[in-house]
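Sequence in, structure out.
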Amino acid sequence: MEITKIINPATGKKIAEYDRISVNEVKNKIKTSHQVFNTWKNTSFDERAKLMYKLADVLEENKEEYAQLATREMGKVIGQSRKEIEKCASICRYYADNTKDLLANQTVKTEAEKSYVTFQPIGVILAVMPWNFPFYQVIRFAVPALMAGNIGVLKHASNVQGCAFAIEDAFKKAGFPDGTFFNLNISSKHVKDIIEDKHIVAVTLTGSDPAGRSVASIAGQNLKKTVMELGGSDAYLILDDADMEKATDLATFGRLQNNGQTCIAAKRFVVLDAVYDEFLKLFTKKMKEAKMGLPTDDDTYYGPMSRKDLRDELHEQVKKTISQGGRLVLGGEIPDREGAFYPATILADLKPGMEGFDNELFGPVASVIRAKDDQEAIELANNSQFGLGSGVITENKERGEKIALQLEAGSSYVNKLVASDPRLPFGGVKNSGYGRELSGYGIREFVNTKTIWID
């Protein structure tokens, strides 16, 4: 039998292991989920909401346990792990409060006696989820899916299987019927078998560009709906009227939050020439002062990356960028200590064609880019294969909004870091994927938008 080993990225030591299940066991669980769907789809929004409120309570009551688990498994700083669980509870309550309105029938006036649009659940949905927000990414999918009347099955990242089983258990503690949410501890090589199962009706994935292309291809061959939230290389434009203290505070937290491993993290800083040197000097100071340490220590600003192999891949990208003419301002060396640590690093004077400009750096490495004016800054920001999030830092909000509207991304925030909010749609364009999560737009991705006509 195959085993999933969980390694603590801060210590390099094994902390747990879980038995993988066979393809036949997966098929049986999916068949059970399909049978449960035939009942669950007929429950009322009020019935589902009662369970969702209870799930929010379960998450909050067990917040410390879940937060410690996430920190052990993927290295997230403990304070951020606690906030992640709190955010999960808020999503439960948002959809419990609002699904009835978000999925209400919509009357359309036609020559019919009665015509309207209704939103009906479609069945068992597979979620392929990443390790960087091991609770939140799953809850962000599962809550609207189940509130719409669907069933959720999860293929989580191997290194956070403890979190995956904890989420499954949380649904049980909340009183959801058995089979409404399953965790499937399987190897990635078996994802194709799951997608091809006749009872799986749709797939959502959050992950890398290659993973998204693979899953979307398999789903497409089987005519199954997909939503893809893939990588990002978010550009933040620092304008010449920006408050440098605020801008560099935002840049430091934006680059080091979640140990630099966030799809919508601030990654490329496009700085106008007039303030480039000032920004870089102050940004370097703050990145240098940020404490790298054990994620369980409350005074740690950022901890280890989730795995050593990912840390080593990031280091190769840094070295490649330097060899292409990028300037190393800070960091850039693997520390002599246990764990998957990598220091806060700044690469400056980057240009298109360099690794640190063209590709996503999924770790605590910032790319700083010089622009002569607003227009060139916009062009540099848009010169990317990605289009997930983007930002503008300026004291002139009208100027910021004008630029935000020209940035090719699923989200553009002025004077604030991009963040997901259940009230607003979340997703990307270009190689950052397609479809939306959250809000009314997200919950309608996995329903049958059905026309009813009565003559």
